[in-house]
Design goal:
heterodimer, A: 567 residues, alpha/beta, Rossmann fold, 6-stranded parallel beta sheet, 22 strands, globular, B: Alpha-Beta Plaits, elongated
């Protein structure tokens, strides 16, 4: 049957199972928006295209399905780029569709023309420019296949206006011809045997679990492996939720703001099992002194990550779940009691310093806010955090037990991510309780999406941790720049009034005792609620491995007020 | 050290840009890159000589393979290959010297392909080392201009014997 390129866009999206898209119309994408009205796809009108990209990303992270965002040419497309790069760095399966000026004027600097495929080349897994209606179906089909396959990622399809308007015979291509798309293979028997041998011999083994646990759906088999071999599990920021934090073998987050006993265990391990993680510099600290006593087994779907940052002894280049299902039956059941006891000793010592067990002395501390939020929500909500100090406190004090319950920008560290991403999360999982935890700085970057939240009538709760500073940068200035607070003190609007302008109920909390009742009140309210927590201004996230320092050389939590300990 | 990677890539617009962008972004150091048609119109072939002092060839190859239009990458460095570089060298020479120059380059199976009153163009084809030797030999005479294609390579023996570069875990 004859269809316009614009109709084919929607035919394909429906075939791919897309129910929701996030976008913003404009001249070059207008034919596609016109055709949209005839198809059963919900469109969420954003207030800025960056928001659309984060929403598609959040949708994908929460559901595992491909998130889709649409924008027009020129500024519409360039506004997407921060969100595309965010999805790229965190391997989020997303498809971006942008309008482009008519093929007849391509390359002439026409109105709202910009080289979108050129700009997005290094921040997409793949991208394509479509200049004829007859290529729309194949290109969109390929985009979805590529976005999902192997290590997922963003794919952009730039479609000229005349390709949207042109008519062609529509056939949905069930299969695609992509000789360069290499589907992951199961791990080979020889590498599996070598891995099993190292695991059986290890006396101080440690699992490092990353986002690959979520991407491959490996949390159950990870648990079976860890329990069978008695191996403690440390998590990357994006690995949080992949292994229950209530599990006795869970060591929580590792790296720059990981607990001291966790990082210390990495440095003293004799075997590291890196499962779906990529030895990011925030995880390793100084690579030259990283885990020198440990053999390393790397299970990783992306061959280009193996040996990139850390040399490994055995590589299983494979989907993590497939690899663990093959590996678990090969290893001996055991429990390295002495090693676990050693780690537990460190855990007790860390616990004694923990701010949670200390008096707030009348101050409202962000860590206490997150802790109380965790307790009040029963740990069952999906938390979408922004980037900065609050993000680290969230990672430390909200104890996630389930996969895909912490959604946060890890690799790119994109401030402004949380609110729009949470809208995508809520669209993907309408029955989940969704909380935004954001700082005063990041929230202001994309707060315009409060209007989107209301227009779509989505029940998303918002906790703003307001310390009047760009807190993480301030902390670095405090530690490394003699407290010279260049451009970090920040004036914020009256967030309660701001929420009022969007007709969002809002509360301000500045006392510890008000945290739980206000969170309760928010939970009892149907629809969005915003709570501004006015917290201690010059608080720091501890412990901390300064960038590039040895992982074992941490700035510890002060055990008494004012005391700082370097180990 | 130098590694030679042979990549079979889809013959599509922008493929060279994708490869160049990857090398720039990851700070991989290209020594030479040639691209040309192959036995099928669907694919082009790139021969990439890369300096692997900083990043191992296996990582470079793995990154190339991640590009969707790149169908296949083989590291031929340690395989028996026929490899060729072509150079055109404009050398200063008076008409009286042509004959002597012609017999000199003949040793390299090179030939004079253009003659002017004050110079000649020498064409030489061969492994990079051979081309380099001739260049050094001609340099004292005055090289006015030179262009080299960069290396192209093909594995010797029957089709299919070339093994793709595999991931080898290196000992810590």
């Amino acid at each position: 049957m004859q269809r316009t390129g614009a109709q084919i866009v929607w035919e394909c999206l429906v075939k791919e199972g897309v129910e929701t898209v996030f976008g913003y119309p404009g001249g070059a994408i207008l034919p596609t928006y016109d055709a949209m009205l005839d198809y059963p796809v919900r469109h969420v009108l954003v207030r800025h295209e960056q928001g659309a990209a984060h929403m598609a990303d959040g949708y994908a992270r929460a559901s595992g399905k491909v998130g889709v965002a649409i924008a027009t040419s020129g500024p519409g497309a360039t506004n997407l780029t921060t969100g595309i790069a965010t999805a790229m760095l965190d391997s989020s399966p997303t498809v971006f569709i942008t309008g482009q000026v008519s093929s007849k004027v391509l390359g002439t600097d026409a109105f709202q023309e910009v080289d979108v495929t050129g700009i997005t080349l290094p921040i997409t897994k793949h991208n394509s420019l479509v200049t004829e209606a007859r290529h729309v179906a194949r290109t969109i089909r390929e985009a979805f296949v590529i976005a999902r396959s192997g290590r997922p990622g963003p794919v952009l399809v730039d479609i000229t206006k005349d390709a949207q308007q042109g008519k062609t015979e529509f056939h949905y291509p069930e299969t695609v011809y992509l000789p360069g798309l290499h589907e992951p293979e199961p791990p080979d028997a020889e590498s599996l045997a070598r891995a099993a041998e190292l695991i059986d011999k290890a006396e101080r083994p440690l699992i490092l679990a990353g986002a690959g646990v979520m991407r491959s759906g490996a949390s159950q088999v990870l648990r079976e492996f860890a329990e069978k071999t008695g191996t403690p599990v440390a998590l990357t920021l994006l690995g949080i939720g992949g292994f229950p934090q209530s599990h006795p073998l869970c060591l929580g987050m590792m790296g720059m703001h990981g607990e001291a006993f966790t990082n210390s265990a990495i440095q003293r391990a004799d075997l590291l099992l890196a499962f779906g993680m990529r030895f990011d510099d925030r995880v390793t600290g100084n690579i030259k002194t990283y885990a020198l006593h440990a053999k390393k087994i790397h299970v990783e779907i992306d061959p280009s990550e193996v040996g990139k940052n850390v040399k490994v002894d055995v590589a299983l280049v494979s989907d993590l779940r497939v690899a663990l299902e093959a590996l678990t039956p090969l290893v001996k059941a055991k429990r390295p009691e002495a090693w676990i006891a050693e780690i537990e000793g460190g855990r007790q010592e860390t616990r004694s310093r923990d701010i949670i067990h200390r008096d707030e002395n009348g101050r409202l501390l962000a860590a206490h806010v997150v802790h109380d939020l965790w307790q009040t929500t029963g740990g069952d909500s999906v938390v979408v955090s922004d980037v900065g100090q609050h993000q680290m406190w969230e990672a430390q004090y909200y104890k996630h037990d389930d996969p895909r319950t912490l959604i946060t920008s890890g690799g790119l560290g994109t401030m402004g991510f949380a609110l729009p991403a949470a809208i995508g999360v809520k669209m993907a999982r309408p029955d989940a309780e969704v909380w935004v935890v954001a700082g005063d700085g990041g929230f202001q970057m994309t707060q315009c999406e409060l209007a989107t939240l209301q227009q779509e009538q989505l029940d998303v709760k918002i906790a703003i941790v307001n310390n009047g500073f760009l807190g993480m940068v301030r902390q670095w200035q405090e530690f490394f720049h003699d407290k010279r607070y260049a451009a970090t003190p920040m004036l914020s609007p009256d967030f309660v009034k701001l929420a009022g302008a969007y007709d969002v109920p809002a509360y301000r909390v500045s006392q510890r005792g008000d945290v739980v009742p206000t969170v309760r009140k928010a939970r009892e309210t149907k629809g969005p609620v915003l709570i501004e927590f006015q917290v201690e201004k010059e608080d720091a996230v501890y412990p901390m491995v300064p960038a590039g320092s040895d992982l074992h050389a941490m700035i510890r939590r002060p055990s008494e007020a004012g005391e700082e300990v370097r180990s | 050290m130098k590694h030679t990677l042979v990549a079979k890539v889809m013959d599509q617009p922008g493929v060279l840009n994708r490869v160049a962008s990857l090398f720039r972004r990851r700070a991989f150091n290209i020594d030479s890159l040639t691209v040309g048609h192959t036995e099928t119109s669907e694919f082009s072939r790139m021969t990439i000589v890369v300096d692997t002092a900083r990043v191992p060839a296996s990582i470079v190859a793995a990154n190339l393979r991640k590009l969707i239009p790149v169908a296949e990458v083989v590291d031929v460095t340690h395989l028996p290959t026929v490899d060729r570089d072509l150079a055109l060298i404009r050398v200063r020479s008076s008409p009286a010297g042509f004959a002597e120059l012609a017999s000199l380059v003949e040793i390299f199976r090179a030939r004079i392909v253009d003659v002017a009153t004050d110079s000649v163009i020498v064409e030489v084809t061969g492994p990079e080392a051979k081309v380099a030797s001739l260049v050094e030999l001609l340099r004292p005479r005055g090289i006015l201009e030179m262009v080299r294609t960069g290396k192209v390579a093909m594995v010797r023996g029957s089709v299919g014997e070339a093994k793709p570069a595999t991931h080898e875990a290196s000992a810590a």
